[in-house]
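Morning run. Coffee first, then this:
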Amino acid sequence: QVQLVESGGGLVQAGGSLRLSCAASGNIFSINSMAWYRQAPGKQRELVATISSGGNTVYVDSVKGRFTISRDNAKNTVYLHMNSLKPEDTSVYYCNADVKVALISRYREVWGQGTLVTVSS
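And here it is:
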């Protein structure tokens, strides 16, 4: 069983910063890509940023230049550094990872439970 546990959400004023963390634990052989998604009330879940095992990153246009995704492979942890936050960034942020539990197994997508980020104007 593999679990992803997010932390670091909270309430922040517009223009402020937060850092989200997501730690993977359990029976992990390797982790391929890791990502952050978000879902605002009444909206579909959207990809915010993704990072490959080699460190290549992709961002949605709305967060480019403000958010930075990074990972610590030794700790099986992914981070999302969020700067210059805007009220429209208010969402539940979910961690996602492609995890392999054994050499011969396939990568399987795992989701965290989500952490709420609220940006006040």
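The two ends are 40 Å apart (CA to CA). Good start to the day.
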